[in-house]
């Protein structure tokens, strides 16, 4: 049942978690945990990190720094929010049926 839930809602959970993490982070902090391979190799500029910083600044209400970090941050956030809304709309329309493995009937 948990596998079915994660299978159906993985993308929705991923995008919402990513936005919550970006909203909770401090984009002005110079050192933080990163999974960026370019930063781990010592390269200071990365377009993906700039996009993440841009969205984080935008979630904190700082539009000027958001545009300075990466000018595609605003469209990217709008696209992600649109995708989240679509996923929610799709999941509301589809009934969540759990099937009992022994009797093969819906729970």
Describe this structure in words.
Helices cover 64% and strands 0% of the residues. The longest helix is centred in the N-terminal third of the chain and has 23 residues, at 2-24. The model has no long low-confidence stretch (mean pLDDT 83). Helix 1 packs across helix 3 (47-59) and helix 3 (47-59) packs across helix 5 (73-93). It is an all-alpha fold.
In round numbers, the mean pLDDT is 83
The share of residues in extended strands comes to under 5%
What composes the largest sheet? none
**Poorly predicted segments:** none
Give the oligomer, counting copies of the same chain as homo and different chains as hetero: single chain
Number of strands: 0
What is the first-to-last residue Cα distance?
Answer: 11 Å
- Listing every helix as H and every strand as E from the N terminus to the C terminus, the arrangement reads HHHHH
Q: Please state the overall shape, judged from the principal axes of the Cα atoms.
A: elongated
What Rg do the Cα atoms give?
A: 19 Å
Can you count the helices?
A: 5
């Amino acid at each position: 049942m948990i596998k079915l839930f994660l299978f159906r809602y993985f993308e929705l959970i991923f995008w919402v978690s990513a936005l919550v993490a970006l909203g909770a982070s401090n984009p002005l902090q110079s050192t933080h945990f990163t999974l960026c391979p370019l930063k781990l190799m010592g390269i200071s500029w990365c377009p993906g990190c700039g996009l993440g910083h841009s969205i984080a600044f935008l979630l904190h209400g700082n539009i000027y720094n958001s545009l300075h970090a990466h000018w595609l941050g605003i469209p990217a956030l709008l696209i992600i929010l649109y995708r989240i809304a679509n996923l929610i709309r799709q999941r509301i329309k589809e009934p969540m049926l759990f099937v009992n493995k022994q009797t093969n009937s819906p729970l």
